[in-house]
Amino acid sequence: SMPVYRTYVAGGSASANDNSVLAATLEMARIIEPSIDPGTFDALSTALHEPGEFAARFEQLSGPVMAKGLEDTLFYRYDRLVALNEVGSDPSAFGMPIEAFHEAMASQSAQIPRTMVGTSTHDTKRSEDVRARIALISEMPDEWAAAVSRWSSMNQTAWNGAMPDPTMEYLLYQTMFGAYPLSRDRAKQFLQKAVREAKQRSSWLDPSEFEATLFDFADEIVDSPAFQDDLASFVARFAVAGRLACLAQVVLKVTLPGVPDFYQGSELWTDGLVDPDNRRPVDYVLRRHLLETIAADPAGQLDPAAADDAHGLLKLRMTKRLLQIRRTVPSCFVGAAYAPLVLNGAASDDAIGYTRGGNVAVVVPVRPLRISRAGWRDTTVVLPGQWVDALGGGALGDGRLVGGTTAIEDVAHHGCMVLVAQDAIR
């Protein structure tokens, strides 16, 4: 019943937050297990609120129990939208209103300005770009439902008469969409981990023969021209939106309150799916080559629709420029105030805007599919004074100057706007 990994009572007196967590956990446990003597929970409450060996052992144990029960079991059974099934996340929390997001970021800026803002780690179940692509499903539920229904029908015979596992099948379709193209070997490696972690039809301690059935299913659909053609066509329809989502995520990570963290290898497009993907060797030679390409053409712009950006030069270029912005105006980030920006126009509900330190203005799409299809149209933001388009130009100060009522379309690069006040650059 613990809603968090652990409390920190053993390190000192219980904080108000620890007290609240323990009270809620014990109350939930009483409801779930009414047959247990209430005195047991009373005794636990006393022991867990007092620093000592019992509280320390409990806190050391609660984290692993939470991880194994939630992240390594439930997250492989509950597959409504697996982009939400991430370490430290709650898959029942399906987004939040923009106003609540602004409140959370303002609080984060004021209370924990040096918190780490990470998007991929050694332990992420899906890398940042895979999650961003899968999250697009929330923007096109009807199209996705029709595709899954079609795929399920055409792949029914791939079970070869065995009882289907709809959970694993649906999990595989989401994974194939987010990590496209998924090879035969990687699909089977992922399925083996998923079915064993779910512990319903196999497990690490007791592997079952069902795994062979699951692998045969994967082989069949990988070899199916009809399915593969349909999947490829479907993925292609959302390729641009997927790249916009990935780039918007980079902008958010670098400009929101906190210190951005870049996990090794995530500088380019990523397709990682847990171990061993998260620990794959990083091709630093390729990254040096791409950085040299950027240095030789600092003003170069790539179209997110360009099919030849297989590695992720666009993402690296965006990352490099954003880090240059942080280095140029550091006072606008760590410890700097966060304030919402008001957007006006047709796409105002499809994006989020904010300022940092009063001198950096950011707008990114929160519905990248809609932006990729309809564009920014007449959407504007009002900015007093003169601002530099920080994502345009060869150097940070080379971008066009804007001010007053500004059309997002005029200063958006790959779906995102980052402006820096001209006075802050001087």
Order of helices and strands: HHHHEHHHHHHHEHHHEEEEHEEHEH
State the share of residues found in helices, binned by percent: 40-55%
Averaged pLDDT? 94
- Which shape, going by the Cα principal axes? globular
What is the SS-derived class? alpha+beta
The residue ranges in which pLDDT falls below 50 over 5 or more consecutive positions are none
- Largest sheet composition: 7 strands, antiparallel
Q: End-to-end span in angstroms? A: 54 Å
Strand content: 5-15%
Total number of beta strands: 9
Rg over CA atoms, rounded to whole Å, is 24 Å
Determine the number of helices (DSSP H or I, runs of at least 4 residues): 17
Question: Can you walk through the features of this model?
Answer:
The protein is an alpha+beta fold. The protein is built from 17 helices and 9 strands. It has helices spanning 16-32, 38-48, 53-71, 98-111, 128-135, 141-154, 166-178, 184-198, 210-222, 225-237, 239-255, 274-277, 284-296, 313-328, 368-374, 408-411, 422-425, and strands spanning 116-118, 259-261, 338-340, 343-344, 351-356, 360-365, 380-389, 401-407, 417-421. Strands 3, 4, 5, 6, 7, 8 and 9 form a 7-stranded antiparallel beta sheet that branches. Strands 1-2 form a two-stranded parallel ribbon. A hairpin with a 3-residue loop joins β5 and β6. α5 (128-135) crosses α7, α8 packs antiparallel against α9 (210-222) and α11 crosses α15 (368-374). The termini are far apart.
